[in-house]
Amino acid sequence: MIKLKEEISDTVDSILREITTDINDELPNDHQIVFDKDTIIWGQEGVLDSFSLVTVLVKIETELTSHYGKPIRLIDSKAMSQASSPFRTLETLADHIQTTLKANGIENE
């Protein structure tokens, strides 16, 4: 299996794949999320609206918190104030997750 990005951990890759599959089960065929680093998931050309994005992020936070045994928050004032959204593509989301994990003292596994 090819990972979304070589730099991301297997755990993050696995969680993103699982959440993507779950979300696709609920989306119409013309709005499916292709598991590719360049897939635009949020914004003007994104496949998710704001509500769906928050739902996805909460699911990811829940999985990460469960896996690592400590609260992980992806949505915060720093993320929301960035000039370029960390939630725009699967690649930027993966980068944001890795940065957030490192800030919480969690390294790649």
* Tertiary shape: globular
- Number of helical elements: 4
Question: Structural class of the secondary elements?
Answer: mainly alpha
Low-confidence sequence ranges:
none
Task: Compute the average pLDDT.
Answer: 83
Number of strands: 0
Oligomerization status of the protein chains: single chain
> Hey, roughly how much beta strand do the residues contain?
under 5%
Can you give the helix content as a percent range?
40-55%
Q: How would you describe this structure to a colleague?
A:
The chain is mostly helical and 109 residues long. The protein has helices at residues 10-26, 50-68, 77-81, 90-103. The protein is globular and about 40 Å long. The protein starts with 9 loop residues before the first helix and ends in a 6-residue tail after the last helix.
Highlighted features:
0% strand, 4 helices, 109 residues, mainly alpha
Protein topology:
Elements: H1 10-26, H2 50-68, H3 77-81, H4 90-103
Write a brief structural summary:
The chain is mostly helical and 109 residues long. The protein has helices at residues 10-26, 50-68, 77-81, 90-103. It has four helices and no strands.
